[in-house]
Structure to design on (152 residues):
């Protein structure tokens, strides 16, 4: 997985998907990678349990606020709704090399609100998306898909 992220070689913004059934260890591996390589980025954020948080009252905006705080240490910026959050995130993150883990994504709306486009992030950024749903990673949304193997 770390080789897929190509930390030193590429200044492109890379998105890597981790796909597999629930309980197989996607989050555990993503957290280990985050802890191992996170210090080599200007900013980093691990947004856990997105599927659950998204359903909570104001969960969508709270995830955007958490992302802004983790990377920019900002608490004063007010995010009113997802659309204004998208504009703020794109503006604040585009000059930073960041490591972002989006854990347990299950809809494209979640991906669009937290990682709308590669242009949102500075060169050399790495985004890891864990999901149970392969369709989230289809098309040209991610550069690589790491399929988790079931343990025997």
């Amino acid at each position: 997985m770390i080789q897929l992220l190509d930390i030193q070689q590429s200044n492109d913004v890379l998105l890597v998907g981790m796909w597999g059934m629930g309980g197989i260890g996607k989050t555990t591996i993503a957290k280990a990678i985050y802890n191992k390589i996170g210090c080599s980025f200007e900013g980093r954020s691990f947004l856990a349990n997105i599927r659950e948080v998204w359903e909570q009252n104001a969960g969508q905006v709270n995830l955007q606020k958490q992302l802004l705080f983790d990377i920019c240490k900002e608490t004063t910026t007010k995010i009113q709704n997802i659309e204004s959050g998208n504009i703020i995130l794109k503006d604040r993150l585009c000059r930073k090399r960041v490591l972002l883990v989006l854990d347990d994504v299950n809809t494209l709306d979640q991906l669009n609100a937290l990682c709308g486009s590669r242009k949102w992030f500075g060169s050399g950024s790495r985004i890891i998306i864990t999901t149970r749903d392969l369709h989230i990673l289809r098309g040209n949304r991610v550069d690589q898909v790491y399929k988790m193997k079931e343990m025997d």
Q: What stands out?
A: DSSP finds six helices and five strands in the chain.
